[in-house]
Amino acid sequence: MKKGKAENAFDNLLSRQDYLVVQANDLAKAFGNLKAFEHKLLDYCFSYVTKESNVTDTFVVSTKEVLHHFGLNASGKNYERVARGFKALNENTALYFAIEKNGKKGIRMGQLFSMIEFIENGEVSFRFSEFAAPYVFALRSQYYSFKLAELAQIKSKYAIVLMKIWEANRYKNQRVTTITGDLDEWQDWFLGTEKRLTPAVFARDCLKVGAEELESKLDVDIYLNVVKNGRKVVGYEMQITDNRQPTTAEVIRQAEKDSYQTDIYDFLGDGNK
Are residue 137 and residue 180 in the same domain, yes or no? Predict the structure, then answer.
């Protein structure tokens, strides 16, 4: 049965060639097209969201605070870098969510920010869009458990992206997290709308680079399994072990230690026995 013009147009829209369609709980995996500094700037913005935040909140930060956080001096060049970073966030954080309406598939298009305002004295104001705010708040409360201080020490874009994917797939503070995806999904997460790479180049230049930096700067072990269909690479399975988290045995030992009750006679003198 032939498809109609509208159906063909919709299929083309979903082709992934122009942008990444994400699910609500995958917001942490979006924006693979951002550069490393822009990723960090975006997470700095996310850090202002609290449990009490609401859709109408406008967040205000000074460029000087941003520079201090990233360990940059207050030169004109660095002020311009921050300004250009916010401009890039405004231009490169479009969102596309797969939806279903009245039994029909569709795409909801929107922007992450409804407003970013940069004043000549270095004051920056931003507001998340009404469309994106619920996802941002859920992201903050459910997934972003790493600290900005940890993020600040990560340098490569691919390590930052991997850190976010890890947090998006992690349940609370579980010690071992397994991330699975097909080749297209992994390249979407790491590259966004950038040109696709061969599996070998992608594994070497993106996955390996990101994994090695996280292993060197965070106390984690990362194991990558290449998933193949015959000789063709079709996806990856990555296991990340967070050695900063206690093992189950350690938790039990600590619980036993905390609940230990000293014999009452230890509190009494010998003459009271």
Answer: no
DSSP-derived 3-state class of residue 32: coil
The pTM of this model reads 0.63
What are the angstrom distances between the C-alpha of 231 and each of 179, 184, 226, 267? 22, 17, 11, 71
- The closest of 170, 201, 60 to 122, measured between CA atoms, is 60
Residue-range definition of the domain harbouring residue 111: 1-144
Give residue-wise pLDDT tens across range 136-152: 877 655 545 556 667 67
- CATH number of the domain to which 195 belongs: 1.10.10.10
Q: Are 115 and 121 in contact (CB under 8 A)?
A: no
Alpha carbon distances (Å) from 96 to 31, 142, 203: 11, 21, 27
Percent helix / strand / coil, the chain, rounded to 5: 45, 20, 35
**Tens-digit pLDDT profile for residues 40-73:** 898 888 888 877 888 889 999 999 888 888 888 8
Q: Last residue of some domain: 100, 119, 144?
A: 144
Distant-in-sequence, close-in-space partners of 106: CB < 8 Å, separation ≥ 6: 10, 98, 99, 100
